[in-house]
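pipeline stage [seq->struct] | target=Gasdermin D | organism=Oryctolagus cuniculus | residues=471
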Amino acid sequence: MPSAFKSVVRSVLRELDSGGQLTAVDSLHSSTSFRPYCLLGRKPSCSLFWKSRYLCIDLSIKDILEPEAPEPGAECSACFDFDDVVDAQVQGSVELAGPGQGRIAGEAAVSGSSSSSMKVCRLRVGTSTLEAMVRGRRLRQPEPKILQQLRRRGDNVYVVTEALQTQQEVQVTQARKQEGSGQFTLSGAVHLQGKGQGHLSRKKMVTIPAGSVLAFGVAQLVIGSDWDILLLPEKKWKTFQPLPPGDKPRSSSYSLVPHSGFEADAPAEWPVLTEDFQGLRAEVEAKLLELECWDRRLSRKLLGGLAPLLRDHQALGALESLLEQGLGREEPQPQDGPARAVFECLPRASGALVMEVANPIFYLVGALTVLSGTQQELLARALETGALVGQLELVGSFLEQSVPWEERSTVPLPPTLLGSSWGEDAAAWTLLEECGHEPQAGAPEVCWEPQAQGPTCALYASLALLARLSQ
């Protein structure tokens, strides 16, 4: 059964954010971490087709500015009432009989329902408020330690400027029921007959507290010898600008058009790729090509080290940081644990990581960290059962049929790739649902959601590289 919180968020965004300008909050646990003025970090993505997750850094913008002053209140620009009730049922029957041989018959039904009612407020920090903040305040000195760490890592920093927030406590109820029955009669020297039936019911109730954030929008900070807030989301700039020797951030200025530090969509050495499945496949195949020259023993050793990390989200993040430092020519200081075991498998030349080996692993780990914990667990099981190639072909077919990715569509899945497994308990169903799509009961098809493109592309890349390493 899907996350009740995620289902509510998708339903609200479908009505209020058809253009995909807001970012969905992915768990109830973190729904208070994205309120207006909260600061977020984000690593530069290793792909053209997905973005890294936002990282809550437990700071508000007032924590990095002086003179100290409370933040102005965010404006409630609009309020909305939502009543979402879904009631669905699918049933079917089959019968097989032959003259003098007997009869086999069966029936099955699947039903589901969900309901929620809520009031949502759209909170915004006005442009004039941001302008006044930038003109009248300066960066705190010395620079907070967390900003120093983000600067060293090359992460970007954002401030939450918009949020969809619940005004009242929300009760979400989900129910699912599966029923089946069958009977058979076999004629012959011995007459046999039998019948059976069964059902499985699930019910989930979740309470979303008042003041929970369902989705948010951000503006990027630019920090150099002064600081800016960028309000044009299509401009991709680096937060931390090079400082003149001995200089520190001190004065303030505001500009909608940044004066320096443009961050291109991709490194200069990347080939020009189209933003469709052909482009994604070309990007992934370039990484697979780098794996071709690997020694098989190295592949097995790395895969053996990566497998436990699929069930350890913190260790996976630690490995990503180690690889980032190593590829950046820093001297990593790995702590004991599964991440260190994988990192130390990688060959070195003159003490530095061999780029041709570390680069595809960094790409793989970056893709894996975009996925949810549930998806990482399912990939671990597929690795154990040898199901990676089948899942790769299914996700690839889904992505290829979904073009253009900017439009919602209903995509049929090839029965030859599904076998007899389709339903809420099927791995393919959960993998695509966790990306943000809507699998349909009955006929094997999935509703493509444009906002789910990034996680789906990351899932495809993860399956492709894991499958190649396991060969």
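stage status: PASS
auto-comment: The chain has two domains: 4-84+122-172+208-230, 277-470. Confidence is low (pLDDT under 50) at residues 248-270.
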